[in-house]
Write a structure and sequence with these properties.
The protein has about 350 residues and is α/β, with parallel strands linked by helices. The chain has helices at about 40-50, 80-95, 110-115, 135-155, 170-175, 190, 195-205, 225-240, 265-270, 290-295, 305-310, 315-320, 335-340, 345-350, and strands at about 20-25, 55-60, 100-105, 120, 130, 160-165, 210-215, 245-250, 280, 300-305. The radius of gyration is 19 Å and the shape is globular.
């Protein structure tokens, strides 16, 4: 029997999601300079909750001052962030969506001007103003991820997603090209994956039985080969700690970038044993048909990014109409404002995204 986008999904922990759509954790630079929740970020996220997403996820939120990667980034590193986070969790709950905070540390991709530098990294990289973390420094960052998850639970969120993708700090530890550390966090694959496994285990042990834990991974690139990307996913799923694995595929229809790998990229992950977790996929899903195709390939959840910028109610429209497709781009600023995209977010999209803003 084919899974429908409208089917609820029950995860190992916490409440069921009403459907198979998740909002992607999109950088939107709409919070305050100190990481407290901004009004436009609140409006952006709550609108997506009203728009029918089964899970509404925040942008990447910094777990440590040294992990701040851009101005206007949401923070979850300090109890001073709690009032805004509680307000957001409450606002999302009122819409009927489930909620999650994505936990993030930029590593060598952080912005030293925001935290005073140097950046924290698995290795020394002077051109990025980055210095290698000591072994105790890695242990500290692991604990910062864990405490951020505890803070999210205190704020009332249904869960967190650990950001292990796109070459940020956790992904830097997975990078076989550059992580040649000689302690237990570098060198061979077992050591390079250790920090991620410690973060996941620490969060599961430190949060309650109804708290959901997700993980976003990159399948290949940023120093990760497809075989190692697949093995990372397999190994974390095998812990049994995850409620869902969110694979950021860039394009759900693409083939692997590396040579010697057949089929579609998605196919290298849909056959993995899931140990109770759901498998989510993300990348260029722009219609109800695209999303349904992902489920037919074996995914459990479809994570939507650009489509949710263009339509705050992408999920509701796709559930109501199997022929739904996003509006043509570029889009006038007035249309984006009507979709609860704030002015700073619009400027960010205009500067960095091809053909999105007219």
């Amino acid at each position: 029997m084919t899974t429908s986008l409208a089917d609820p999904i029950q995860l190992p922990h916490g409440p069921a999601w009403a459907n198979r759509f998740a909002l992607a954790p999109l950088t939107n630079i709409q919070s305050n300079p100190d990481g407290t929740l901004g009004e436009d970020e609140y409006a952006w996220l709550v609108a997506r909750g009203r728009g029918g997403f089964g899970l509404t996820m925040t942008c990447a939120a910094w777990v440590s001052p040294a992990g701040r990667a851009w101005a206007g980034q949401l923070g979850i590193a300090d109890d001073a962030h709690l009032p805004g986070l509680r307000r957001l969790a409450d606002g999302l709950r009122e819409t009927g969506t489930r909620s999650s905070v994505q936990l993030h540390h930029g590593g060598r991709r952080s912005d030293p001007s925001l935290h005073g530098g140097p950046n924290e990294c698995p290795w020394d990289q002077p051109d990025k103003d980055a210095a290698a973390l000591s072994t105790s420094g890695v242990e500290r960052v692991v604990e910062e991820f864990v405490q951020a998850a505890v803070r999210a639970e205190r704020a009332g969120f249904d869960g967190v997603e650990v950001h292990g993708a796109h070459g940020y700090l956790i992904g830097q530890f997975l990078d076989a090209r550059s992580n040649h550390r000689e302690d237990r966090y570098g060198g061979d694959f077992d050591n390079r994956v250790r920090m991620l496994l410690e973060v996941v285990e620490g969060i599961r042990q430190s949060t309650g039985p109804d708290f959901q834990l997700g993980l976003r991974l990159t399948p290949e690139g940023n120093g990760i080969t497809l075989p190692e990307g697949r093995e990372t996913a397999r190994r974390v799923l095998a812990t049994g700690h995850l409620d869902y694995l969110d694979m950021s595929l860039w394009d759900v229809f693409m083939e692997p970038r590396g040579e010697g790998h057949e089929g579609l990229l998605i196919e290298h992950f849909t056959d993995l044993p899931r140990h109770g977790a759901a498998l989510g996929v993300a990348g260029r899903v722009s219609s109800a048909a695209d999303a349904q195709w992902c489920l037919e390939q074996g995914a459990d959840v479809v994570t939507v990014g650009t489509g949710a910028i263009l339509h705050h109610d992408f999920a509701a429209q796709a559930l109501a109409d199997p022929d739904f497709r996003v509006r043509e781009r570029p889009v006038p600023r007035d249309v984006l404002r009507e979709e609860h995209v704030g002015p700073r977010f619009i400027d960010y999209l205009a500067a960095g995204w091809d053909d999105l803003v007219a």
